[in-house]
Design a protein that fits this description.
about 450 residues; alpha/beta; GMP Synthetase, Chain A, domain 3; Rossmann fold; Helicase, Ruva Protein, domain 3; 4 domains; five-stranded parallel sheet; three-stranded mixed sheet; 8 strands; elongated; binds adenosine-5'-diphosphate; binds magnesium ion
Amino acid sequence: MKGIWRKVTDLLAGEISEVSLKTWILPMVPVYADDKVFILSVPDAFSYTYVIQWQNLITHSFASVCSRTYDVQIAVTGSQEIMEALRRSTSPNSSAAVSVSPDEIRRTAAQLNPQYTFDAFVVGSGNRFAHAACVAVAEKLGGRNYNPLFLYGGSGLGKTHLMHSIGNFVTRKHPEKKVVYVQCEQFVNEFISAIKEISYDEFREKYRSADLLLIDDIQFIEGKEQMQIEFFHTFNALHESGKHIVMTCDKPPQSLASLEERLRTRFSSGLIVDIQPPDYETRVAILKRRAQQNNVNVPEDVFDYISANIATNIRELDGAFNTVLAYSLLAGSIDLEVASAALKDIIQPRPSRQITAQMMMEVVARFYNVSVNEILSNRRSMDITLPRQVAMYLCRFVLNMTFPKIGEEFGGKDHTTVMHACNKVSSDLNSVNSSLSHDIEEIKKRLSA
Ligand code: ADP
Ligand code: MG
């Protein structure tokens, strides 16, 4: 059945624009076939209205591929026709030539990526709580517990992955539950065309009949007033009947600009969890998992090199790793040299000369317009303490020197003084209106110049 469908889509590729093919045709799933009927499911009523214009073309393509006439039917996932087809295909007496498992159909229907599972998710300090919350929701759906779950964090940190994991878990464990996953942008677009085409009831039905509604990147609703009202009602309808709602966002609810207050209150009424960038150990663990998945042997220092240099997010970490893999195929081996050549545009080479505490003090002193002797002194005026503390901080975190060693280099100061200096700079860096991070970036640049 899948094979036939693939041939049909190949044929359609010559007739329909590439964009239309990708957007409307390829998301369709063959769900049922016998010797007369072939049923394709489309994800939603919205797609249906588009796809149906090609029904004749599709039927003809089937005829040329199979040299027989099928009654090709297109139906919306979850609709009567599809449920009936599912029932027929799973009944033991069925003679239907169905090769897709019901599980697979449900997953596709909900637009869930089968790769995004809890099993494939590496847990580390930055995402431990988010992961636990998602598992808890998946295991105990509905009710007031963690409902809604609001998951927020920067890009590429695994929000979508966790959200699909909940969906995949639930579709497998509770096939009777209706899982709806939607990117907020799609939700908004569907709403707009539903209003235009007076198919509002279908839109409403699709979302309000969900047992689990997963809305990804909810920040897309910012500033869209009408949409917020619609979502407010969808939210209430689901929440009141004990259905579960999970949202992801790139920021916490209180930072969502121009969001209706009542909606903000709703968002915050369940559990809010954040997801933080992965620490070094987690990054290594993820890369090791990727190596395993790709069945390649990667030396430890290559894991270390990539993890130490790519700290932003997991999407970029994956990107860097894939670049190294691709490069190593050409190079015929995989080692540190190959890795640094592959990533030369992403990772700046480490400064070749060894930077000493003395050099650090000189660069910092010049930057702040003080002398090295003043840094070494015990003077406590603000214009001297700041450069001294910054220099100590950089010795600790850029040169990886120990506290006692730094104390020694800085004119014999106690290690607790150094610790205090480093803590002070760290906390100043975290305060919102600090220009310190710019200073430090600039100093680092000068160091490697
Ligand atoms: P977000 O939605 O937060 O922008 P994604 O969920 O799309 O991020 O994650 C980006 C990529 O990184 C995906 O391919 C995802 O599978 C992967 N990823 C993210 N976090 C993890 C993790 N903890 N373990 C394994 N893979 C992860
Ligand atoms: Mg995402």
